[in-house]
Amino acid sequence: MFWLLFCIFFAACLGAGVTGGLFQPGPWYRQLNKPWFTPPDWVFPVTWMVLYICIAMAGARAAMAENNGIALAFWALQIAFNGLWTPVFFGLKNIRMGMAVVTFLWLAVFSAMLALWQVDRIAGLLFFPYLVWVTIAAALNASVWRLNPDVARNPPEMAQ
After folding, report:
1. The domain containing residue 22 runs over which residues?
2. Which pTM does this prediction carry?
3. Which residue of 58, 126, 135, 148 is surrounded by the most CB atoms within 10 Å?
4. Per the domain annotation, does 86 fall within a domain?
């Protein structure tokens, strides 16, 4: 039963991850000023695959636990915000709205981690690396906003 649940949660993670392929950084992002701590491009897919495995594992563990309603609700909320950030930031090229989405994502991940911890400690721990990564993503988003105030104020047209 665990592996079936894992596959379902992993499919949800991959669904959110598909947005990375649909809305790639492209020339617009490459031209932006970025902070010194921006990871190289290859780090993102590797990190997300590891994180998606952890996120799915946490979801499957929580699904098998009793009194899991709040934890699973926060799990669903975080994966929704996870799938939303890329289309907003890279698709709409909207740095400020991306910051709002990543802030809500951070809050959802933190809340999910706490709720998961209540039903299964390992599930809660599996969300810790995810929270660290979303913290880095939020810092990157904030830095890109700070380093590119004109672009953040006036997002380019989507056709560019």
Report:
1. 2-153
2. 0.93
3. 58
4. yes
